[in-house]
Amino acid sequence: AQTVTQSQPEMSVQEAETVTLSCTYDTSENNYYLFWYKQPPSRQMILVIRQEAYKQQNATENRFSVNFQKAAKSFSLKISDSQLGDTAMYFCAFMNPPNFGNEKLTFGTGTRLTIIP
Amino acid sequence: EADIYQTPRYLVIGTGKKITLECSQTMGHDKMYWYQQDPGMELHLIHYSYGVNSTEKGDLSSESTVSRIRTEHFPLTLESARPSHTSQYLCASTYSTGELFFGEGSRLTVL
Fold it and tell me: What local confidence, expressed as pLDDT, does residue A41 receive?
């Protein structure tokens, strides 16, 4: 079974600074998907960024980027120019490829990120 | 925002009551999921469905049951609620792209 580990339960950073959230995972599969989800206080969980394991290029979405190290099974999230609205729980998640017969997300324990004004 | 809705958002009930948490999506997604999440904690998959009349138990054992009679509807039922069922329940759906769309959650408190 796949496991996802987030070793930073809480982090805080000053507004406009850059912060990196760590995630490691364990799998014997070669093809899979990795995600970062954001859960703001009392609001819906939303997708921040997605990485397909067969793509070597790191995914980027505006201020959010990942550092995907497949051999090390590491998938960190970098938030640049952090904003107050980035305050949330961030979950790293793993999924086998669609149509693999096991399309379930396995989540890490989350990192609570607070952006300080 | 995603078109997936959960009701009720908050529910406080007594032990032994039967409850149903509703989840509906208007996106035509085949795959739907129920996750259980204690406050500030990770999500645990308790049920999932890959289509009408398809339901499976997730990784975390749960006394709840689900049904999938219509594509858009995936309700979760507890026949006899207990304090140990107090938690937040999140419903989600997806195409086969891996991106899950989540509802706002149903926070259940059993006294």
Answer: 87
